[in-house]
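Title: Comparing notes on inverse folding

I've been comparing how different people in this forum approach sequence design from structure. To keep things fair, I'm posting one structure and asking everyone to reply with a full sequence. Here's the target:
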């Protein structure tokens, strides 16, 4: 029942509220009737609506108004603190008191006891020369001797001990004084034992000095080398003396496994393993693979296939004499570009201790399907089954060379000879002076006619016997022209060779004929025996007949006044160990001129000139301790690798990375320089 009543009241309340809201809406906007209704009203004014502080200047208030808490005596409000109504103010500030009784009186020159020139009044009285407070003697007394404080000593300037006008004058011990002289006996700092002043520190009166400096100390303690055997040192076995306790001389044995001196990489030990101790030395050569070929040049080139591997392609010896084996083992690769057109010789004949094989390709067979042009296993008469290959090549055209062994065990160090020879074309050479004299007997006769007939029809080059016409060079053919030349020149030849006894102008003393200069009269007088013995060196230069000779050479002068005196140890100022005297002072270790650091400085790190880079040995570019370290381009370096992109000598074409057409080994048809008929045309 209560619940029903409660619900009824709620319903009624809801209806009343709703009616109220509806009626309110019907009345319009309350801001229209009252702009102060709410601060959101558009005409709302805080001051007019009484919401703001009436003392706020924004609302027309005056903060100086006592009603607003202001002070009309405040100067900011226009008040005068000196007004009796405002308390009368400070008499000094308001001018009612005598200024001489107020703060700052001491700066007023009319006040008794004031000091207007004091530092509190003017700051620095010396700052302005025109100021009445400026006093010459107070400000510049060192410039005016008439000032009471002028001090001739102090105003001198510089250290007082340098000024003779000062009681502290003692110039001998101060380096700033012009009379500085610490060795003057009158100086306070004079030390009669100072060597600079002529004293002797070894004088007992000076304390006796250091035994070593004064010469009476133990030589080994004072000047001796602690490593000198005479001083008890051991330069051979003591590490502190640079010795090696593990050297055989000191009883060390590097071959005892686990011993103090054990060195598994000592080459004298029976179990020395070069590949373990020097892995790079056992690495395959840089040109081990077909694509890693390196340049090959004319002349002898040393190679090492000891650690080369057997690469592809295989079976390339199937068209060559192969003794039942068509493969190449332990092979290395080269690229060769001949500088001539002619016969190329590739030979290991008698230059390798194992059975070699050589093959020549027109391009790298690994990348561009290169073809075998020629190959050889065993050259005729070559020892150890070494190879000899010849092939006609075109100058400027690159070729690939493969070098390896007959079997898997054929490898080692050897040399390959490379030579390109252009065949002679002597048909371009001029004919001799009498070309019709075929047999060279000085006469053109029936024998020369028979010589032409014997060679009839032969051609060259080389020039066939019997070719004597036409012109100065002939035509490299024995034919009717040569026959007519012999007939027309029948008889004695017009000989003009001064070295030919059959010629009219024969002269055995002619320079081209090799005559004896002495027989011909133009030889050297001394060599031919008709010269003056004194001039020719066979006489005694000290003989008065030969001029008496040089006093030094003949022994009449003091040797110390003659050339070479600097090599005589008894001559004053000589240097018998100079290079002019002994040549190479390092040639004899027992020589008194031999100096370990001068002669073997690279072996002793204690020598002042020891250079870790230079003393490394070998080319500097192979030593990582040197600034010139660039190993890739020097075949002597273990890291030699001209195909490393970081190498200065890197060539894409030589290293197989370039464009085959740009590098010159590509397919002529694919590269565009082939014969059109063979490559693309339909030619008959």
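Reply #1:
Here's my take.
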């Amino acid at each position: 029942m209560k619940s029903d009543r409660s619900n009824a009241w709620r319903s009624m309340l809801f209806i009343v509220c709703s009616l109220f809201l509806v009626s309110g809406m019907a009345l319009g906007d309350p801001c229209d009737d009252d702009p102060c209704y709410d601060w959101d009203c558009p005409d709302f004014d805080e001051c007019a609506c009484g919401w703001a502080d009436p003392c706020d200047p924004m609302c027309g208030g005056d903060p100086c108004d006592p009603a607003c808490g202001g002070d009309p005596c405040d100067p900011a409000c226009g008040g005068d603190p000196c007004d009796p109504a405002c308390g009368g103010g400070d008499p000094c500030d308001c001018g009612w008191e005598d200024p001489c009784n107020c703060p700052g009186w001491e700066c007023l020159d009319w006040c008794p006891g004031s000091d207007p020139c004091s530092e509190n009044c003017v700051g620095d009285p010396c700052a302005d020369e025109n100021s009445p407070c400026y006093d010459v003697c107070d400000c510049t007394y060192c410039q005016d001797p008439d000032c009471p404080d002028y001090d001739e000593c102090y105003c001198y300037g510089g250290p007082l001990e340098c000024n003779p006008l000062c009681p502290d004058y003692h110039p001998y011990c101060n380096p700033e004084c012009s009379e500085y002289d610490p060795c003057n006996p009158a100086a306070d700092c004079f030390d009669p034992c100072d060597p600079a002043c002529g004293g002797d520190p070894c004088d007992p009166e000076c304390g006796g000095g250091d035994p070593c400096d004064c010469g009476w100390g133990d030589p080994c303690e004072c000047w001796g080398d602690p490593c000198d055997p005479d001083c008890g040192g051991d330069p051979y076995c003591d590490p502190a003396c640079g010795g090696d306790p593990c050297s055989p001389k000191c009883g060390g044995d590097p071959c005892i496994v686990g011993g103090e001196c054990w060195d598994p990489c000592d080459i004298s030990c029976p179990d020395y393993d070069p590949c373990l101790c020097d892995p790079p030395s056992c690495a395959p050569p840089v040109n081990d693979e077909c694509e890693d070929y390196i340049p090959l040049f004319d002349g002898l080139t040393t190679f090492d296939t000891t650690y080369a591997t057997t690469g592809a392609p295989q079976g390339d010896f199937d068209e060559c004499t192969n003794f039942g084996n068509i493969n190449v083992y332990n092979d290395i690769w080269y690229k060769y570009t001949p500088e001539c057109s002619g016969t190329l010789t590739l030979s290991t004949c008698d230059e390798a201790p194992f059975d070699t094989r050589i093959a020549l390709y027109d391009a790298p067979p690994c990348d561009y399907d290169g073809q075998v042009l020629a190959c050889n296993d065993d050259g005729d008469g070559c020892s150890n089954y070494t190879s000899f290959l010849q092939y006609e090549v075109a100058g400027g055209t690159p070729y690939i060379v493969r070098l390896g062994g007959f079997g898997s065990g054929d490898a080692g160090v050897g040399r390959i000879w490379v030579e390109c020879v252009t065949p002679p074309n002597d048909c371009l050479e001029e004919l001799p002076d009498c070309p019709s004299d075929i047999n060279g007997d000085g006469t053109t006769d029936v024998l020369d006619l028979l010589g032409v007939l014997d060679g009839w029809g032969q051609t060259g080059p080389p020039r066939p016997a019997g070719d004597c016409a036409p012109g100065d060079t002939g035509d490299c053919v024995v034919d009717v022209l040569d026959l007519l030349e012999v007939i027309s020149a029948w008889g004695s030849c017009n000989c003009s060779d001064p070295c030919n006894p059959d010629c009219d102008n024969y002269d055995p003393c002619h320079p081209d004929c090799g005559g004896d200069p002495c027989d011909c009269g133009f030889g050297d007088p001394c060599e031919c025996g008709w010269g003056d013995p004194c001039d020719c060196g066979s006489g005694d230069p000290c003989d008065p007949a030969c001029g008496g000779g040089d006093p030094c050479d003949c022994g009449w002068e003091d040797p110390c006044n003659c050339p070479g005196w600097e090599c005589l140890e008894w001559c004053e100022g000589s240097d018998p160990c100079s290079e002019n005297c002994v040549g190479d002072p390092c040639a004899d270790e027992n020589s008194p001129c031999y100096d370990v650091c001068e002669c073997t400085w690279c072996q002793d790190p204690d020598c002042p000139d020891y250079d870790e880079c230079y003393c490394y040995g070998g080319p500097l570019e192979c030593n990582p301790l040197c600034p010139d370290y660039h190993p890739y381009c020097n075949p002597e370096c273990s890291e030699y690798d001209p195909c490393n992109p970081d190498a200065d000598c890197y060539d894409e074409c030589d290293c197989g990375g370039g464009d085959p057409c740009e590098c010159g080994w590509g397919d002529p048809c694919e590269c565009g320089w082939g014969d059109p008929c063979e490559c693309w045309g339909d030619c008959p």
